[in-house]
Design a protein that fits this description.
The structure is a single chain. By secondary structure, the chain is an alpha/beta fold. It folds into two domains: about 70 residues, Ubiquitin-like (UB roll); about 130 residues, Cell division protein FtsQ/DivIB (Rossmann fold). Helices cover about 35% and strands about 25% of the residues. The chain has a nine-stranded mixed β-sheet with strand order 8-7-6-9-10-11-12-13-14. A hairpin with a 3-residue loop joins strand 4 and strand 5. The mean pLDDT is about 85.
Amino acid sequence: MQSLSRFRDPAPSRWAYRKQRLMLTPAFRFFLRAGLPFSVVFLAVAIYLANGDRRATLVEGAAEMRRQIEQRPEFQVRLMAIDGASAGVDEDLREILPLDFPVSSFDLDLEGIRKRAEELDAVASASVRIRSGGVLQLDVVERTPSVVWRGRRGLELLDGEGHRVAALAHRTDRPDLPLLAGDGAEDAVPEALELLSVAGLIEPRIRGILRVGARRWDIVLDRDQRILLPEAGAVAALERVIAMDEVQDLLDRDVTVIDMRNPKRPTLRMGIAAVEAFRDAGLFRHGAN
């Protein structure tokens, strides 16, 4: 009978056992599949890039490759098209956007171009995109002039919100727009337009709307007539004057000022001819005038 010592013990050794247990660990298997190759590659790249000349060569090669891509014909922008702008605004936009075509689309700051275009007073909003065919497309929404404002710098066009649109050389260049004057008038354009919207039949007679003390309005009419409106409730006060005019032809009489600053007690200032007529009729007593 053979000795049992001649046969190898089938049980694994301690190290073999530990190795088998380690191979059954998910984290260790993941390290062998991904972590170890990555570490080897990372170490090789780090050793390669440790040399300064090699790094410079790689940077120059990447820059040259980028330049070659950026200069390809399909990425070249050759002209700019502007839609939605009048001739004057179109000219101003091309002046403030001095782009040297052709230019690579990678070198264009579209957001910067949009902001630069919107800095123009006449431009309410703008959008920029690169169109097929190498065209820089600029779509513009212009501000619509609503009033002429006579300020300290001269005549200016304002839109319905009081934003400046452009300078105006002569009042006769825009006779279709109402005239505002006075300090602070540019900050109250919506209220002035609301007054004009209720003016009705007297609107053709309005020569201008004057802002007084940056807090209230005077309506200046032809024939040297003026309507003084209160600080609050100006629209209602003007509607009351229009109602009195429709009933009593108030503005057709020799009245120079209709003072509505105290709506509960309207005051009229008569013209010289009316005063003389009242005096001749003996309606003024004790030298009243």
